[in-house]
Amino acid sequence: MRITCYHGDYSSMGYIYLTPPKTEYNDAHLNELTQSVSEEKIYIPYVTDLDITPALIQMPISENTFREDSGKGYDTEYGNDMNNLGYITGIELSLRKNRFVDLVSNQAFKAIRTEWRGQEFHLITLDHLDNVLHPENILYKLTDKEDAFIIVQLSKAEDLGIRYSNNSDLQPIAVFKGLLSSREDIYPLEYLLKPDFFMCQD
Q1: Average pLDDT, the chain
Q2: Which of 44, 128, 153, 161 is positioned for an S-S bond with 175, CB 3.0–4.6 A?
Q3: Most confident of 19-23, 74-78, 193-197
Q4: Residue range 35-52, pLDDT digits in tens
Q5: Is the distance from CB of 195 to CB of 124 less than 8 angstroms?
Q6: Contacts of 46 (CB under 8 A, 6+ apart)
Q7: Which of the 8 DSSP states describes residue 151?
C-alpha cells in the first residue's frame, strides 16, 4: 500500500492509495522515512487471530452511501478519489511528519482478516487499532452492495484546526480510520500488504 507524506513548515499533506496507483513510483532514494524508522519496522502485518467482529457490531452503519452523504452528513478535509461505482481509491489528508513516523514505526497500518455478516472481510487500519474500532465511529457503505465500507470518525472542524468564515452550514469532518472490504478485485490484499511508504520535505 502506497502512503505518502509531504511535510513542510506550514502544512503537511498525505495521500493513501487504497488501490494500486496507475503510475509506478521509484523514489526510494529520496525517502526520508528510513532516517526515522528502521527498515525492519517498515512492514504491514497480516492478522488472522484477532476477533474484531464484536467491535464492528457496535458501530452504526450508514443508511446512505458515503458518496450520497457527502456535503450533507459530513465534509472532508480535502478531496478523495472514487471510481465511477463509488469505491474510494485514494484519500488526501493532513499528515504530519511525526504522526506518520509514529504510525509506521508502530505498525498501525495492518490488514486484519475477519468474518462479518456471514462472509470474509479484511479490515485495513489507517490509525492505531483502538482509534479504528472506537464504537462511536461510523461504517459508511461505499455502495448499496455493502461489500466495502470506510470507517470514519466524525470530528468537529475546530478540533482539527480547520477554520471557516461561515459556520452556519458547518458539517462534521470525516476522518478516515479504516477500510473494511470483501472486494479483493478492487482492493487486492497483495497490494495492501506491501509497504510503499514515502516521506519527504515539500
Answers
A1: 91
A2: 153
A3: 193-197
A4: 999 999 999 999 999 999
A5: no
A6: 110, 111, 113, 189, 193
A7: E
Cβ–Cβ < 8 Å for 3, 198:
yes
Number of H helices, E strands in the chain: 5, 11
Q: Does the structure show a pLDDT above 70 at 9?
A: yes
Contact between 138 and 59 under an 8 Å Cβ cutoff? The reply is: yes
Indicate the pLDDT class of residue 159, thresholds 50, 70 and 90: low
The torsion defined by the Cα of 74, 77, 81 and 83, in degrees rounded to 10, comes to 0
Torsions phi, psi of 131, nearest 5?
-75, -30
120 Cβ contact partners less than 8 Å away, ≥ 6 residues apart:
113, 114, 182
Burial 35-45 (b: 16+ CB within 10 A, else e): eebeeeebebe
Residue with cell 455478516: 117
Q: Whole-prediction pTM value?
A: 0.92
